[in-house]
Amino acid sequence: MLEQDSGFIGDDLAWQADALCAEPRYRADDWFENGRKATDRAKRTCMACLVQRECLSYAIAGEITEGVWGALTGPERARLIDAGITAEAVLAYGPHAFAGLRAEHERELDARVERIRFGGIV
Ligand code: SF4
Asked: What pLDDT digit, counting tens, does each position of 44-65 carry?
């Protein structure tokens, strides 16, 4: 979401002028609510947003933990950061370039949860 200064890209926030979520037809709360439905609505809007790449890059650079930015939640962005994906890389290659990596991490996390559920050691 908008108007949080991460100190990235020379504080050039011009991309925010094209932010789909800033349009009045959308509920701003969707980007910061914890419910699955609200998050899904926010993510769907992000996927159609022209500045998704800039937005996600900005949030990663600023280590913003709250809200949906560039179609990713805070924990999802944290996984990218943990995997060594930088804000510059997101800006250069776009968020979809790392979809496979994200999927791999999600499979790994699912497997860990399964091991915990069945009493194994993580
Ligand atoms: S990607 Fe999503 S959060 Fe970012 S500016 Fe676009 S609609 Fe808003």
From this structure: 999 999 999 999 999 999 999 9
CB 28 within 8 A of CB 81: no
Distance from the Cα of residue 109 to its chain's centroid: 17
- Answer whether 59's CB lies under 8 Å from 1's CB: no
Q: Residue 72's beta-bridge partner residues?
A: 69
Residue with the smallest CA separation from ligand 1 atom 8 is 21
Q: Which of 106, 8, 117, 104 is nearest to 56 (CA)?
A: 8
Task: Give the pLDDT confidence score for residue 114 in this predicted structure.
Answer: 74
Write down the pTM of the prediction.
0.76
Residue whose CB lies within 8 A of the most ligand 1 atoms, among 20, 23, 27, for a mutation test: 20
β-bridge partners, 69 = 72
Residue 81 · residue 49 · CB < 8 Å: no
pLDDT at 105: 58
Q: Domain spans of the chain? A: 9-95
